[in-house]
User: What shape does this take?
Amino acid sequence: MSGIVPFGEDGQLHFIGEDGQPHWNEGAELADRMRHCGVPGVSFAVIEGHEVAWAEGHGTLRSGGDTRVTSMTLLHAGSTAKMVSAAGSLNLVKRGLLALDEDVNDKLSSWHIPDGEFTQQEKVTLRRLLSHSGGLEYGFTNRSSGDAVPEYFTPGGVAPSVTLQQLLDAEPGIDVDGLTRVTAVPGSQYRYSNADYAILELLIRDVTGKPFPTFMQETILGPLGMTSSTYDQPLPPDLRARAAIEHDHLGEAVPGDRLHIPLLAAGGLWTTPSDMARFVIELMDSYRGKSQQVLDRAMTSEMFSAQIGIPQNPLADSAGLGIQLSGEGKDLSMVHTGSTFGSTAIVWAYPETGQGAIIMTNSATGSLLRLETLIGIARVFGWPLEPGP
Assistant: This one.
């Protein structure tokens, strides 16, 4: 055994183990970094050779508590849910129920994107929703994790009652800042917007006639064996029993221990890093023509193709469909981050080489830790990763 600890003085993540497998040294610096970042619990999974090679959890479900985070602990995926939701919509394209480049208003029945000067030039399409290039500006309250939680969030055990239509229309009494509307020519620029995926969720519901969690369970989660994952809110009792407690920017448990939002496609998934790794592996296998469980090679190739540039982003150069991209060839990487009022996450993978990592925390202050952990894992496995701060 080497006895060397992660995040050593040389900046490297090291591992120990007579079995030749990577392991964290629990007695040293990971715990120090978790304390420094105010993160009670962290869990991660590493993909090597298109397989889950390593999955571990560290810390506790609740700050100051005794119950440990394990690889089976559910955490809030935040916006990393978008990549899973995107795959669900692309499955409908594969089945001929949706088309990437048609006006989504042609298939929406429960709500419509308001027409205006910009939609006269170009239409909002599924491709543009998935790549955040639809020109939409949304009025959902724009708050950081250090601000007051929007009123349309509900505590754990309570299902959200505000509808997506109420949010999009800024109905009086709903805690939003204004109407969702198109304020740029669709396809002309990248503009990250949760409204894109609120509309996606409505589109899927309107086309399939099914509740969004049911559709995703039948189309993605179930077929891929993601048995520790759900879009249901509140969480089903069996999954709730092993779900982490979320913590705000002050290190306090959020009301009701976890927060639920009406924006399921945009950020309502609860999962484990290992389950998310299964999803990422399926995408990579589809991309190389080895699987068609969810998407065929043509659909995954679209997903991994640059749709529009992302300016001033240290992690990615362009947006794909539901993911962000950087590099090319063996260095092609896909990434998505997630941050909520009580959790953080990051998904990073190399489609060409079958490598990747998923890191999730149960604290709103986990952004630095997730990146440090990713860089450390990348150095151990020799990945070409040196993202900025």
Summary: The chain has one domain: 29-381.
